[in-house]
Write a structure and sequence with these properties.
Elements (H helix, E strand, L loop, with lengths): L12 H17 L4 H9 L18 H14 L1 H22 L6 H8 L4 E4 L15 E4 L5 E10 L7 E8 L7 E8 L5 E3 L14 E10 L4 E5 L7 H35 L1 E2 L5 E2 L4 H29 L8 H27 L9 H9 L9 H13 L5
Parallel strand pairs: 1-4
Antiparallel strand pairs: 2-3, 3-7, 4-5, 5-8, 6-7, 9-10
Helix pairs in contact: 1-3, 3-4, 3-6, 3-7, 4-5, 4-6, 6-7, 6-8, 6-9, 7-8, 8-9, 8-10
Length: 389
């Protein structure tokens, strides 16, 4: 379980239980977490990364990662969607701490209540941050209009700013990958009502079709060469995304383990004279196995989050470490939930059972970047060098 309790978290125990109590309804109705979002905004949760000079609490990556584990233990889909806002404010904080003020407007606007969506992912784009299928068309004055389709756009009903990217193929120095922010009020996009998944339903991560969405020059934050890039923005996105994503799935694992322990203490065995399943050696082994897997994720998240906060220089090993964290966290969380299901009995197979919902929610972890293939390739290159090198 997270080492943040209700006494020192932005989320009191009572508020966390309110959020937990809504999760099943949101899932059953495939509905957005509107009440959760209102409560989180009121608690100052969306401004966690904002430094004191801009009116926020100034939490670093370490603290936010722990808070997200706590939130995800109550409502995984809520935590996953909020992650996307926190990724952008986290990137802004990472850059700000390193003397780069190009995304300070994100911190100021997050403090003012704006909600940032993450419009990066595209169907069929396995280059992720290093390429784009979206067309970024330059406008007079330095702004850009974007044309393309973004998938898994969490917070679709609520974002007021969308951080996105596209490829400029027409400027004299083209091609350039363009990162920018568009305003919801400016239009030029369509949000499809197509989020009908088996898990993480409350996130409402609908497809977003960009059809001329405009980013003015002061919201165009980077023009980069396609392909791997050492720009701090790329590092910031990768670091914030992978650490906070790992935190959400680790929060799922902590709750699954908690439910498993409660279940085996509650269930009794007729063939063992009514003794609790917690006395059964095989059941005890499975619970211990889940606990061992869970215990391995938490310190790795804490270590890398601390290294981000303290600006530790891992050089070329940063990307292998971060992608490895994502894979280990999501795969370990799936294992923990699976073991919890196995010891908890057939009731977990029914709709409305919290552990059954966690089983569906945790599956989404395999689809987020970096996927297992990409992560293994990155780590292999770090240890063995490129193929043929």
């Amino acid at each position: 379980m997270s080492d943040i309790t209700g006494t020192d978290s932005l989320l009191s125990d009572d508020l966390l239980e309110q959020i937990r109590s809504r999760a099943d309804r949101y899932d059953a109705e495939n509905a957005f977490f509107t009440d959760d979002l209102d409560d989180l905004r009121a608690a100052g949760y969306l401004a966690m990364f904002v430094p004191a000079e801009f009116g926020g609490p100034g939490f670093g990556m370490s603290r936010v990662a722990r808070e997200q584990q706590r939130l995800a233990s109550a409502a995984p889909a809520t935590a996953l969607a909020v992650n996307m806002h926190l990724v952008w404010s986290g990137v802004a904080r990472i850059l700000h701490d390193r003397g780069d003020d190009s995304l300070d407007f994100v911190l100021r606007e997050a403090a003012a209540g704006e909600i940032f969506g993450f419009g990066i992912s595209e169907g069929g784009n396995d280059l992720v941050l290093f390429g784009s299928r979206t067309d970024a068309r330059p406008e007079p004055g330095g702004g850009y209009r974007f044309y393309g389709t973004k998938i898994f756009t969490s917070l679709s009903p609520a974002w007021s700013r969308l951080g996105t990217m596209g490829l400029d193929t027409t400027s004299t120095d083209a091609p350039k990958l363009v990162y920018a922010f568009v305003d919801r009020a400016g239009g030029g996009f369509e949000v499809k009502d197509d989020w009908n998944t088996i898990g993480m339903r409350a996130s409402q991560s609908n497809t977003t079709v960009l059809d001329g969405a405009f980013a003015p020059a002061d919201r165009v934050v980077r023009r980069l060469e396609p392909g791997p890039n050492a720009d701090p923005l790329v590092f910031g996105i990768f670091a914030a995304f992978e650490i906070l994503l790992a935190s959400v799935y680790t929060g799922i694992a902590s709750r699954a383990l908690e439910l498993a322990v409660a279940a085996v203490k509650r269930r009794t065995s007729m063939k063992n004279d009514g003794r609790p399943y917690s006395d059964d050696p095989d059941i005890r082994w499975r619970v211990a196995d889940a606990a061992i897997a869970y215990d391995g994720i938490v310190p790795q998240i804490a270590s890398l989050a601390r290294d981000v906060d303290e600006q530790v220089d891992h050089g070329g090993l940063w990307f292998p470490k971060l992608s490895g964290l994502k894979v280990r966290a999501t795969e370990s969380a799936r294992h923990v939930v699976d073991q919890a299901i196995r010891v908890s009995g057939g009731s977990s197979y029914f709709n409305g059972n919290e552990l059954g919902r966690l089983y569906r929610d945790v599956l989404a972890g395999i689809f987020h970047p970096s996927d297992a293939e990409s992560a293994h390739s990155t780590v292999a290159n770090a240890w063995l060098g490129p193929i043929g090198g």
